[in-house]
Structure formats: structure tokens, C-alpha cells
Amino acid sequence: MMEPVRPIALSDIEDARRRIAGTVLRTPLVRLQVGNGADIYLKLENLQPTNAYKIRGAANAVARLPDEERTRGVWTISAGNAGQGVAYAARAFGVPCSVVTIETAPQTKLERMRALGATIVPVSYEEAWRAAESHAFEGMEGTFIHPFDNHDFIAGHGTMGLEIAEDLPEVRTLIAAIGGGGLITGVGSALKALRPEVKVIGAEPETAAPYAYSLKQGAPQRFPDWQASFVDGAGGKSVTERMWQRMQPVVDRAITVTLDETRQAMRLIAEKSRTIAEGAGALSLAAALQDQALEGPIVCIVSGGNIDLDKFAELVTAP
């Protein structure tokens, strides 16, 4: 039985911060010198122990489980980053973890999940998305931790919003990639509670932009002509009804970017911050650079850096 959707309260996020303090890094917020006058900061979640923000939600969700549920083991569904986060948290508690993984996930992500002790169950993207929508997958045992539609998971992501508000009180715009919607819901909930004037904007690739499409239609939709791309950590096939309910109160709008704009943003992050961003991690900066009318200071969440190095080099050096 799915728990009813309810707002992510500031107290939920503050409790999560105390709960995950020993597991999760307070990541740096660094100014990006882009030369066009834009006032942009990068929140470098690619520096987390799992090189992605999902560890925040995973650590909170696993810590919140009753002992009897935790000891039965946990499982999740992931293109890689959620799987790493849940596996990392599960290992800290000494419990088994399985991950229903999209079979085309980068080898870097698969290897890291295995190194953390996770059992990998490879499936097609369609099968994984159906499991995410139904909250079920035949044959899996233990407690299911949803990779985005989970109150505790989202509250954990909200801890990033607390850090941003403290490190840059004058922030005016926040941009985050949208995959399932858990990241932007968590951070948006924290910032709207602390800084109601902040605009919270989602970023999606043009090949997979279900939230922007749903906004145009006025209801959650499946995205027509969805295409797989190197942006494997964001850009789902649809917006679920439950995540639509979660995002609506805290997300102001969405920006759709091209794959080439995303690739250029990956290169710029590498050049300026000397860190690696995967495709989903660079969507926020691509969106900020596309829309010159955004009010600064702008914070772009670099959500992760888990990409095969050969693929990264190919993408950022292409003409």
C-alpha cells in the first residue's frame, strides 16, 4: 500500500540532515566564471561519496526503516545513482541490497553498485519504468525503497536546499534536473519554505522532457517520441500522478535543452571547476546558459558525475 502524497515539511528535512550527517558530505557551492555576466553558482553533488546526490535520500530512507524491515534487506530501481546511494546506505547498516538496473546503464555505475555489495538485476528501460510506476517487481525480496516517489528519500534531498540557503542567502533562482522528480521536489520544498521568492526551475533534455510536456498539457503525461541518450540519469518517459502532485506546489517552470547544449555544459563544468558532470548533472547549467533572462544569483545543481571516462572524453571533445 502506497503512503499518501503529502508536502515535504521543513521539519522533515531538518530531521533528515541530523540523520545523515555522518554519511553525506556538505558539498561546496562554487561561483562559475562564464564571462557573459551571468551570476551562476554550481552545487557540486558530484563530489559525494557515490559521486551523486542520491546518497542523501537513500541514507535518510534506509535510516528511517524500522529494524525488522531493514534486516530483511532492501531493493530499489535505478539507472545507477539511486542504486549506488541505497547500496552505500545498506552496507553501512550491514543489510543486503538488490538493484533492478536498466541494462544500458554505464559500466561505471554497474561496477560501483557491485563494489558496494549490491546484487544487480538487469532489465530493459521499459521494465524498470513500469516497476517504478507500480512500486513492484516480481521476485524481489525485502523492503522497497523507491528511487524518487518516497517521502523520506525526497526529504533527504531537501538537505541540499538547507545548505544552499545558508551558503547563498541571496539566491534568486534554483535549477535542477528532472528525472523522476525527487531531487527538485526536495530542494524546492526546502527553498520555498526558507526563501519563498526563489524561482525553482526544472531542466530536461529535449529527447525526454515529460515535465515540460505535462505543464503544457496541464496534467501528467507520457512524453511522445522519447529517445534514449547519454543523459541517462534524467529525462523519464512520463510524469507519474504522484510526482506531479509533489512537484506542482514547488516547481515554477521547466526549461528544455538540447543534447549539444548539455554536452557543452559538461565541458564547461570540467574546464571551470575541474570536476566531471554526467549528462544529467550538466542539464541545470545548460538551462541557465540558455535563458539569459533568469534572475541571479542562480544555483545549478550538478547532480552527479557517474559516467564512463571514455564516453565523457568523447562527448566533451566532439566538435
Give a quick summary of the entry.
The chain is an alpha/beta fold and 319 residues long. It contains 13 helices and ten strands.
Could you describe the 3D structure shown?
This protein has 319 residues and is an alpha/beta fold. The protein folds into two domains: 10-52 and 151-317, Rossmann fold (3-Layer(aba) Sandwich), CATH 3.40.50.1100; 55-144, Rossmann fold (3-Layer(aba) Sandwich). It is built from 13 helices and ten strands. The protein has a six-stranded mixed beta sheet, sandwiched between helices. Strands 5-4-3-6 form a four-stranded parallel beta sheet. Helix 4 (81-93) links the parallel strand 3 and strand 4 (97-102). Helix 2 runs parallel beside helix 4, helix 2 (54-64) crosses helix 7 (151-167) and helix 7 (151-167) crosses helix 8.
